[in-house]
Specification:
The structure is a homodimer. By secondary structure, chain A is mainly alpha-helical. In chain A, 59% of the residues lie in helices and 11% in strands. The first copy, chain A, has a three-stranded antiparallel sheet. The interface between A and B is large, with 52 and 52 residues.
């Protein structure tokens, strides 16, 4: 990974204290709750995982996501919209289809928030 | 940290692939969604943070938690119950009061699930 990427991750750790560091203020609690709420649904978690498992820089056509679920296209699109509004994924329309990819920095920020000091020491 | 603790964290990483590793199956998606749903509320996030910020092995009396919120005791107790059902905290009654503490392994497990390969390399 590049030095720049390392610095970004370092900044995240510095800017955003973890759950154990200090009591959360109202604003940050509201912001984080919105993202966790987006993750609090099995279909959205499966969608996120399907997109994320394409690897860094990988993307998935919505036409590949829908057949993996026993749900209508509008329902899948609604779940994808909630993940996008939470800042976990982004998308682009190209011709007929919309393509989705994850935003790794959003996932890593949540991971840093949840990680306890014990685990942080273990991987340091 | 002890060798045993390191092994536990290592086992978690081995047993539970991250969001980017492979598409989630239904069972694990349902299990994880339940925990993320518990985190998807600002009051519960603030409660968790208040408890977690007591440090490892620290605990908080419910009598200290309630005054931090403009909510009734039963409402706070309900939110604490949801955090407990999600396996994020545990509690014990001693005399008049109930005492709460976090379960760090549950938080670390979620953090490992969310962490992308890029961040994993950065802290390795």
């Amino acid at each position: 990974m590049s030095k720049q990427e390392l610095e970004v991750i370092g900044q995240d750790a510095a800017c955003c204290p973890g759950v154990s560091a200090a009591p959360l203020d109202d604003e940050r609690a509201a912001e984080l709750a919105k993202v966790f709420k987006a993750l609090g649904d099995p279909v959205r978690l499966r969608l996120l995982s399907l997109i994320a498992s394409r690897g860094e820089g990988g993307e998935v056509c919505v036409c590949e996501l829908t057949p993996a679920f026993d749900l209508s296209q509008p329902t899948i699109s609604h779940h994808l919209k909630l993940l996008r509004q939470a800042g976990l994924i982004d998308c682009e329309r190209r011709g007929t289809w919309v393509y989705y990819w994850v935003l790794p920095s959003a996932l890593d920020r949540l991971a840093l928030f949840l990680r306890t000091p014990t685990a942080a020491e273990a991987v340091a």
